[in-house]
Amino acid sequence: MTHFDTLETRSDEERAADLARALPEQIARARSASGYAESLAGVDAASIRSADDLVGLPVLRKSELSRAQSENAPFGGFTAKPAAGFAHIFQSPGPIYEPGGVDHDWWRMGRFLHAAGIGQGDIVQNCFGYHLTPAGMIFENGARAVGAAVLPAGTGQTELQVNAARDIGCTAYAGTPDYLKVILDKADEMGVTLKISKAAVGGGALFPSLRQEYADRGITCLQSYATADLGNIAYESPAMEGMIVDEHVIVEIVTPGTGTPVAPGEVGEVVVTSLNPDYPLIRFATGDLSAILPGLSPCGRTNMRIKGWMGRADQTTKIKGMFVRPEQVAALVDKHDEIVKARVIASRHGEMDTMTVQIESPGGDDMSYAKSVVEVLKLKGAIEVVAPGSLPKDGLVIEDQRVYD
Q: What is the pTM of this model?
């Protein structure tokens, strides 16, 4: 079968109609959770039927989730059932606690593994961690969804991993992009031939040179974009043209520090609404940068595509001993109706930090802008007013030009 299910090839109209039914139900679930009692108060769930309707809702940031969890352990009141109702409870650095399930494709990773050609008859050497953090179980759950067997290998003890892969006959790898090379190099050193011909990777950058090295070894390597909180967000298909958004999440690309969508094609922060009924995260900010890729994938999957991971959206920078955050830059823009966007540049002059604030505006009062900069950013800086459309569309609202080496 070319596709995991019929959801992947829906028309725009079918997908919109399905979302119009599913989204109000998910908003209603979220409203019933104590964690959303304040932020979603007064929201009419029935009126939220599309991605456009989500824009008026607040963004949930990981810092807020962490704070809520510290006050109401373990999940901060954001799940639809108590902790004991889940199959697993994980802990990620922070600490952040995430629920986990073992129902069919609970994390939606089966869709990605299917796209990577993994299925019945395959044995997956799963080198994601199983200890506390959920990555190992996320990929194991996906392997079950496609009918593949799993060697729960984790990381380390590479020589044992090589022997196990040889003895068991592993045909596929799941793990970070670079650890597969460690295994293959060790196998070469040991004079062992492995049968791995497919790789499903995540959790790090897959550089083109590394992908090519795997291809030269006869291994097709595809990558996914997933988080511990949300599960699968987007994934590559054999077309290898961007990443296709999963069918059970809604992805928005917004200006960092805000909930305002950027223009199509511009780089911004990835904000995700999950349709998982057990864990209804609404407009959850990932802290990652990406951009929407226009058009449809040649593989026949019809959902929106993104360009993949393009850096971190949390550009918080310390200038003259003071932190400047993307949220502050957004507040500066909101302070003046005529400002289109702004960019803070941190640099050095001699041995002193300097700050320049570039403001896209058709005009305006430099003195007024300077006053607002001090009020909002708590620092004085040079003001540069530039014409609308002049600033780069790279997702940066704070650019640190200082050299630290």
A: 0.85
